[in-house]
């Protein structure tokens, strides 16, 4: 029986890589699939992983009717056993409902991949509908890490080096620490504690260099549960 599965995690945890692996695994057993994406970092109509793999994909515009599109393909004689849907957080709730209908009425497996929440920690509408409708929601195993070394749970937006909590929900961008020109808008994965303190890696680095910071070990002096890792310790803001 076909399934609607939502694979989710923060940015940079391997979702697109897994999407391409799922396609490869199913295709190599003779199953016929279609790849969809929206606003991939590498451009239109491509599904790309940071590990370097890319594959052509169909771009999901807001007005694309996924049910109609797949039914038309099948009517034209094409077999469709599964769909791989990347960047599914950007799909509209109606498109997610169309995916669910394809599972239930056309027996097509749907593997959807996307982040759950935006830079304000609010659910994307598409992700919310996926969580509501999916047969299973799976958290990816490889977790991105905050600069402090803890598992990251939040995707923070950084504009010109400063973390922001207001702005448009959708701004395509990449993550910090990657090679290439530094973009104006980038994303950094943080643990909740550092997100709440608006402390991304460059803010932490600036604080650790500030003459206002007293020259003693904050870990020993802070109240229980509030200590920041020592700037000299193993986990701390990366040197910039
Ligand atoms: N050179 C590399 N060697 C091994 N793993 C890498 C390399 N570059 C990136 N990665 C891994 O690739 C993953 C990000 O892949 P990607 O599928 O693009 O993520 P997502 O779609 O979730 O944003 C991360 O887990 C990262 O650790
Ligand atoms: C948090 C957040 C992210 N985005 C964009 C940035 C990227 O282009 C994608 C996520 O891609 P990934 O493959 O998971 O790395 O989403 C956004 O538009 N708004 C946000 O708040």
TrEMBL record:
E.C. code: 2.7.1.21
Protein name per the record: Thymidine kinase
Reaction(s) the record says it catalyses: thymidine + ATP = dTMP + ADP + H(+)
MF terms in GO: thymidine kinase activity
Superkingdom as given in the UniProt entry: Bacteria
Enzyme class: transferase
Record's keyword terms, sorted: ATP-binding, DNA synthesis, Kinase, Nucleotide-binding, Transferase
Taxonomy of the source species: Bacteria, Bacillati, Actinomycetota, Actinomycetes, Micrococcales
Entry similarity comment: Belongs to the thymidine kinase family.
């Amino acid at each position: 029986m076909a399934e609607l599965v939502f694979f989710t995690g923060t940015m940079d945890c391997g979702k697109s890589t897994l999407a391409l692996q799922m396609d490869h695994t199913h295709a190599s057993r003779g199953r016929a699939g279609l790849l969809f994406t929206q606003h991939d970092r590498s451009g239109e109509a491509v599904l790309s992983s940071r590990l370097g793999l890319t594959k052509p994909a169909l771009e999901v515009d807001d007005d694309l009717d996924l049910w109609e599109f797949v039914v038309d393909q099948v009517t034209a004689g094409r077999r469709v056993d599964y769909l791989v849907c990347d960047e599914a957080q950007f799909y509209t709730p109606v498109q997610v409902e169309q995916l669910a209908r394809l599972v239930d009425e056309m027996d097509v497996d749907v593997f959807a991949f996307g982040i759950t929440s935006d830079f304000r920690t609010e659910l994307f509408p598409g992700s919310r509908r996926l969580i509501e409708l999916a047969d299973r929601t799976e958290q990816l195993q490889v977790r991105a890490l905050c600069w402090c070394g803890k598992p990251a749970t939040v995707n923070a937006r950084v504009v010109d080096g400063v973390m922001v909590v207001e702005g448009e929900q959708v701004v395509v961008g990449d993550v910090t620490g990657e090679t290439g020109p530094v973009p104006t808008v980038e994303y950094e994965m943080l643990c909740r504690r550092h997100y709440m303190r608006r402390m991304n890696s460059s803010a932490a680095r600036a604080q650790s260099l500030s003459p206002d910071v007293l020259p003693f070990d904050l870990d020993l002096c802070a109240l229980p549960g509030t200590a920041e890792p020592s700037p000299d310790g193993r986990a701390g803001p990366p040197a910039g």
